[in-house]
Amino acid sequence: MAPPPLEQGTLEAAGARKALAGSFVSGFLLAFLGAILPVWGHHLTWDYLTVALYFVGLLGGILASVWISPPLIARKGIGWTLASACGTASAALLFLALVSPPSWAGWRVFGLAVIGCAAGLLHTAIFHAVSPMYRHDPAATVNLGGILFGLGCFAVAFFVSQTFYVYTAPSIQIWIAVIPGFFAIFYSRAKFPSQPLPHPPPLRAIFSELRSPGAVLFSLLLFFQFGNEWVLAGWLPMFLSQRLGISPKTSILMLAMYWLSLMIGRIVAQWVLARFSHTRLLISSVLASLLGCVVLLSTDNAFGAWLGVLLIGAAFGPVYPLMVEKIGHRFPSYHPGFYNGIFSFAIVGGLLAPCSLGYWASLWGVKAVMGLPAAGSAIVFVLLMLISLEARLTSPSR
Question: Which CATH architecture is the domain 13-193+201-394 placed in?
């Protein structure tokens, strides 16, 4: 196949870089709920089921985007989809500012569903746009995207923590809506090359992956790891305020530091990829995260809370990019531009963890917030051992 013209290749590279910047907005949107819960006053109540409904709305919007995004990108293009997703998210944040408590919670569930759909559209368009970068260097692309995503998560939590006692809840959300609105204007003026979209695998191909023990183990690993990260992302301020008596402003700041340490973990992972055994690095990260969960469960003071939060964030950082790299090596047909095969169920299923935690917290109390990722980290460790064993048994030399 002849290489693309120089102008087309330059446009693809520039478009990929512009689209990858949208990962910042994606993290900004998905981390919004965990940071805004204390602003809505939920750290003063024990209505965990309502909080669970918020996460259900967010997840429902993300699932809806799976069916909406492919035809939208095919008809309107990547640039239009990116701009529309950011504009829709900005409008949804303004709507949430109007229906902040004491308004009916159902309106906020609806607003969060729209934000989830916008984030899903944004994510899918970004993945399609960065496909050339991903084919060239999967690990570096995933790490860079993860760093920008983490930076967006950190930014929204840090902003909310610094304005908690300064502005009202509607005012904070209006300021937050400015960020995706700015990106909507940016993407509406940006140029992106037209490129064919990969066809998603048929349903038969999805179920055929169940025959591969490696695919099943990888999907389960992603399921539990993704759930571990987002349980803390959504419920950490609630846990710190209600169990340890930490002020809501400080608890949201700790959430910001969790995202910052996770982002630093992504950066460190990029540096150590070529210097350490990837399997050992994965195992060390999982064990460190388990230790951090135990520290948060057993501590009764702010110092222990800070130690546990930073340890968990730094330990979670390298896991996802390392897993994506392993998936790319084991399953070359894996493509980041759509929810591929059984891995789609793993990634989407992981988002069920913060939803289901509302039910468990209503039964066992807020301590379940740490109990769930602690158990999940232990399961991830067992799955890593099984994946290592399966790889040895199925290697050509065996």
Answer: Up-down Bundle (1.20)
